[in-house]
Design a protein that fits this description.
548 residues; mainly beta; 4-stranded mixed β-sheet; 4-stranded antiparallel β-sheet; 5 helices; 4% helix; 38% strand; globular
Length: 548
């Protein structure tokens, strides 16, 4: 176990003047630092009206691609993604050309990040409309295209969300790729949702495409096992992917959010076979009993009962869903009880993520919103095309309050929100936000909340091919208080977050114990951990692995 005492990052040495004024009644604050940090980028202006492809948007991500301990920034875009290296002290520099990333051209939409070859360096998968790229991190600041060599051939799919996870317990990261609809030059571009109003057609006008599972064969290649692993039971028209061991049996399952059709919950039965428990688990439909246009999904234990819960965004006119985990892979709707139903009904939610904004120990929630119809006010009463962010503070698992209107600044400026990623850009223990304003500039919102609580960030590492311990589960205890979290950066919308586990600890000045269930199945208990720092924990070597 490696401990970096007081690792608060250079960004905390010189406080910045907040660009987001905060009334005294709001206990949190953020500073919009994109431009001043060096994020000199803007997504191109959008046409009007928007086709379904124009409106889809892009994702973003945090990743430490050079292994220096600082989270770098990835912005997915056409014709190529942009990568900004984090130099510390609040400085980002564009390395898209120097790293070779600018050579990879395509209609890119999303990203997934993981070490697929087990060399200790995070690799990158790009998804898009009729394009896909697997880029290997060479460790010399460069990306090497291994798409064809890995068996991920050229395709005409519209790939959306994706994620890496060891699904069969062999130590190598497998790959789940979601696909949306079949859309090409000969397909219909526009519809009239109301007479005289021209807009992109909804997904039901197109043939659905389906999720894929690719098994990592351990030799740098993947094999498509979708036809034999149970994915033929998936609903299709998929957008968002989120992993979690929902039945707590040591094998990772995954949620697939679809656009306007029932969601899927793929339960891992072992030996790389899944069954779709979307309906029986309670996640297939929204709070009103209809299928959600699920744009984003993320797991966290919002009520601190030791079971992971699921948040899913929806279309305007339908509230977001908060699905409370009940053990055994079953969920119940809880949005209405905690005040999230009406507060999310008119917005069209895209990227979303859990983060403990004030480190009080209770996961809070951020949502990026924006419509898909540029004439949205003429189609849906009470809504707009560009929409403000939401930031819901968690009141000890009992209710949520949107404090964005009180924060002002970047939180009240309407944007065309799409991707959102959560991470600690300055290593100060306060979780920050990266948000896509599609057709505008990226938002990098640095958390400047006054310190009244403690925190701990866990950087978990395994000795085998799953070097970054994707799928590990953490249980922390301090007195009677318990925290549960997992390692899985794939969530939100077309995006990937900081893979480290962040725990807000409230007033606890130390952890009595930390229990890690590693992806290998090994249980490790560490006593009396100090707080307010980043801790790297290595799984002890030599534990035998068995294929699940």
């Amino acid at each position: 176990m490696a401990v970096m005492p007081g690792c608060r990052g250079p960004g905390s040495a010189k406080p910045h003047n907040s660009l987001v004024p905060v009334p005294s009644a709001v206990p949190v604050s953020f500073e919009s630092v994109g431009r001043k940090s060096g994020l000199a980028f803007r997504w191109p202006a959008l046409p009007q009206p928007l086709t379904i492809l124009d409106a889809f948007g892009c994702g973003c991500g945090f990743l430490d691609y050079d292994g220096d301990g600082w989270q770098d920034v990835l912005l997915v875009a056409e014709p190529y993604p942009h990568l900004y290296r984090n130099l510390g002290a609040g400085r980002l520099v564009d390395v898209s050309a120097a790293s070779g990333l600018a050579q990879h051209r395509g209609a890119w939409k999303g990203c997934a990040i993981g070490d697929y070859d087990g060399d200790g360096r995070l690799d990158l998968l790009l998804t898009g409309h009729q394009c896909l790229a697997l880029l290997r991190n060479t460790g010399a600041g460069k990306w090497q295209d291994r798409t064809a060599a890995a068996g991920l051939a050229a395709r005409d799919n519209w790939s959306s969300g994706a994620g890496f996870m060891d699904l069969d317990g062999d130590g190598a990261l497998d790959l789940v790729i979601l696909n949306y609809v079949r859309y090409g030059p000969g397909d219909r571009k526009f519809c009239e949702p109301k007479p005289g109003i021209r807009a992109g057609c909804p997904p039901r006008y197109y043939l659905p495409q389906y999720p894929e599972v690719w098994r990592n064969q351990g030799n740098g290649r993947f094999r498509n096992v979708s036809a034999v692993c149970g994915m033929k039971d998936a609903t299709g028209t998929a957008q968002v992917l989120a992993f979690a061991d929902v039945d707590d049996n040591g094998t990772p399952d995954f949620y697939v959010g679809n656009d306007g059709v029932p969601a899927d919950l793929m339960i891992n039965e072992g030996k790389l076979h899944f069954h779709n428990a979307g309906i029986e688990s309670g996640v297939a439909y929204g709070t009103d009993g209809s299928a959600l246009a699920a744009m984003s999904a993320d797991f966290a234990d919002f009520d601190r009962d030791g079971v992971l819960d699921l948040f899913v965004t929806g279309f305007s006119g339908e509230p977001a869903s908060l699905l409370r985990g009940l053990r055994g892979g079953v969920f119940e709707h809880a949005a209405k009880q905690v005040g999230l139903e009406e507060s999310t009904r008119t917005a069209l939610g895209f990227g979303a993520g859990w983060l403990d904004v004030d480190d009080d120990g209770w996961p809070d929630l951020s949502v990026a919103n924006g419509h898909v119809y540029d004439r949205a006010p003429e189609l849906y009463a009470g809504t707009t095309f560009r929409q403000p962010l939401m930031l819901f503070l968690n009141r000890e698992g009992q209710s949520f309050r949107n404090v964005a209107p009180e924060l002002g600044g970047a939180f009240t400026t309407p944007i065309l929100g799409r991707g959102l990623a959560v991470g600690d850009i300055d290593n100060d223990g306060r979780m920050d936000l990266l948000v896509v304003d599609y057709g505008g500039e990226p938002l990098l919102l640095r958390n400047t909340t006054p310190r009244t609580n403690h925190w701990l960030t866990l950087d978990l590492r395994s000795p085998g091919k799953n070097r970054f311990a994707y799928g590990a589960r953490v249980e922390a205890r301090a007195g009677s208080r318990t925290w549960v979290a997992q390692v899985s950066p794939a969530s939100s919308y077309l995006s990937s977050g900081d893979p480290r586990v962040h725990l807000g600890l409230g007033g606890s000045t130390r952890l009595d114990s930390l229990r890690v269930r590693w992806p290998s199945g090994r249980l490790q208990v560490l006593p009396e951990l100090p707080v307010d720092r980043v801790v790297r924990i290595e799984e002890p070597a030599g534990h035998p692995r068995g294929v699940r």
